[in-house]
């Protein structure tokens, strides 16, 4: 490793600093090095521009607080002081106790609850088809290997692969709440529409339109929550999307059990699989699967009714204000007042968000964010890692169980309809319950470590499914092993590959082109979601159950290697430190990943307890960053002080 240190003093040093500075690094600590006079000048200009003279005390003190947490520990800020209530709120905000970060205003948790309901809507939309297809495939005379069976099941995700790109124009035309309101209404109406089809093509059309309610919502809700949340709880709130999606998945599978008996099914001559279409599509025979498909329609109506009782995203309001609507400045401040403990914190965040928006606008004028995602190596590495996590969320095979478990259990293991639905419901409950620990472990154990720890187990449990389907069909051994493999796979998936992809993608992209990057990776996720759902019936028929599950077990192994070599750890790192992580050449990180593997094998399988664990980037305290690059097990450590820049090659 070679490196160059520059002290950042003198014209040549300053020029070098500016030349090497990435745009997102400039936005990471925007007021670093500003003089007192420059801060005052910027504050006065903002107050004049925003016409917020009535709140200037909170904005002025908040601006100095945005520059430094220790702003009021000396007398340099014109004698500005903190009130006791403000001091207590700031102490709570910076507490080292993890539990304290969850002590937030009730209005923020009301917003979180609404976003959680919106996530549950998506999960319920996804699994309502699981139990329903046991019945509607007979009503529409769809065979198990029929391509139309997969097309109906995956129709919403085909639409989502394109509709998520509507997120940007919809948010520009409407506000965040408006997009959530409209998409929830679409979800409700299309779910109702799924209850009335008389042909599989009509059901496909209704489910395809459902994608317009899922796609833009899946991109907008996490952004809305992230923009409303304070920094110290933002990570936990971003992962709420996936956790409560798992809750919705559970609700959909429970609904399948509850509604399965809502028909006259006791007489096989009336509602048996060989009955005519007239009987199978009549209300006495088809009411159960029609109610299953329509069941998600109620929850989005609650979200739509509730969303306008909440404050709008302060960031969106400031974006409108900066385009000429000055009344939005006060609206943004009042929104922050509702979402923070004190007006001082609201003033601080208002000034900071406004400054970041100004910086982003300047960057957008100078550069092409979409082009930079591909052309800049740092961004390309982050995009590659994000695509891997999103792609593997689908190709680990989880949605095969989410969409088709009931049909698989009935057709391949000869479970009764009701038992198949009960077993699927158990998977949904496990999927939600085992996502809960990730609220803690995703920040303490780490994103990459969660993935590396869970993928081997996911592969092993998929192999259990392979073994199960090679046993005698309907035997006790097969039934027990199928249930065990399915449930343990859910246990391994839920705290790792379940919540990590959306959190990882949101934080690894540079701030100034995060919307573009998230649009790409979200679209990729939905496309492969559609691909898995569409191809599974034919794939299962051609490869048989052991071959199909073996395929996804192999992908879990491939995914583990891709994560080891290409996905970098992002926990507990600032934007500036993340920039350093992704500045490393890919070959260096690949070497680091192999070093980690050698250490793990040597430590735990060969008993070499003296081996030192490889470290790629590690933060030591508030005042220094130690960057460790390892070749084999020789360490080279370099200390970087805050007033210096370090370049690596």
TrEMBL record:
<feature type="region of interest" description="Disordered">
    <location>
        <begin position="1"/>
        <end position="31"/>
    </location>
</feature>
<feature type="transmembrane region" description="Helical">
    <location>
        <begin position="147"/>
        <end position="166"/>
    </location>
</feature>
<keyword id="KW-0813">Transport</keyword>
<dbReference type="Pfam" id="PF00083">
    <property type="entry name" value="Sugar_tr"/>
</dbReference>
<keyword id="KW-1133">Transmembrane helix</keyword>
<feature type="transmembrane region" description="Helical">
    <location>
        <begin position="382"/>
        <end position="400"/>
    </location>
</feature>
<keyword id="KW-0812">Transmembrane</keyword>
<feature type="transmembrane region" description="Helical">
    <location>
        <begin position="178"/>
        <end position="196"/>
    </location>
</feature>
<feature type="transmembrane region" description="Helical">
    <location>
        <begin position="476"/>
        <end position="495"/>
    </location>
</feature>
<feature type="transmembrane region" description="Helical">
    <location>
        <begin position="548"/>
        <end position="567"/>
    </location>
</feature>
<dbReference type="GO" id="GO:0016020">
    <property type="term" value="C:membrane"/>
</dbReference>
<comment type="similarity">
    <text>Belongs to the major facilitator superfamily. Sugar transporter (TC 2.A.1.1) family.</text>
</comment>
<keyword id="KW-0762">Sugar transport</keyword>
<dbReference type="InterPro" id="IPR036259">
    <property type="entry name" value="MFS_trans_sf"/>
</dbReference>
<feature type="transmembrane region" description="Helical">
    <location>
        <begin position="516"/>
        <end position="536"/>
    </location>
</feature>
<protein>
    <submittedName>
        <fullName>MFS sugar transporter</fullName>
    </submittedName>
</protein>
<feature type="transmembrane region" description="Helical">
    <location>
        <begin position="289"/>
        <end position="310"/>
    </location>
</feature>
<dbReference type="GO" id="GO:0015791">
    <property type="term" value="P:polyol transmembrane transport"/>
</dbReference>
<dbReference type="InterPro" id="IPR020846">
    <property type="entry name" value="MFS_dom"/>
</dbReference>
<dbReference type="InterPro" id="IPR005828">
    <property type="entry name" value="MFS_sugar_transport-like"/>
</dbReference>
<feature type="transmembrane region" description="Helical">
    <location>
        <begin position="238"/>
        <end position="260"/>
    </location>
</feature>
<feature type="domain" description="Major facilitator superfamily (MFS) profile">
    <location>
        <begin position="111"/>
        <end position="571"/>
    </location>
</feature>
<keyword id="KW-0472">Membrane</keyword>
<feature type="transmembrane region" description="Helical">
    <location>
        <begin position="420"/>
        <end position="442"/>
    </location>
</feature>
<feature type="transmembrane region" description="Helical">
    <location>
        <begin position="106"/>
        <end position="124"/>
    </location>
</feature>
<feature type="transmembrane region" description="Helical">
    <location>
        <begin position="208"/>
        <end position="226"/>
    </location>
</feature>
<dbReference type="InterPro" id="IPR050814">
    <property type="entry name" value="Myo-inositol_Transporter"/>
</dbReference>
<dbReference type="GO" id="GO:0015798">
    <property type="term" value="P:myo-inositol transport"/>
</dbReference>
<dbReference type="InterPro" id="IPR005829">
    <property type="entry name" value="Sugar_transporter_CS"/>
</dbReference>
<dbReference type="GO" id="GO:0022857">
    <property type="term" value="F:transmembrane transporter activity"/>
</dbReference>
<feature type="transmembrane region" description="Helical">
    <location>
        <begin position="449"/>
        <end position="470"/>
    </location>
</feature>
<dbReference type="InterPro" id="IPR003663">
    <property type="entry name" value="Sugar/inositol_transpt"/>
</dbReference>
